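The protein record quoted for completeness.
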Amino acid sequence: MATPDQPLAAAVAAARDAVEEIAESGEVGEHLSAAADDLRLVTHRFAASRPGYGGWEWFATLARAPAPAR
């Protein structure tokens, strides 16, 4: 597996904000991991505390454009 893009791997708050836009209040738990899916593409996983969905997780995939050529 590729090494995660560092700015994207560090963007836990942005990933959490994205998930919290669709989740009910209090349903997004602790950050579990950040894994590289491809170059400049990282998926963050969060524990889900949604009633009736024990063991489920929330996912948010973040991407960024490449730096402009100089």
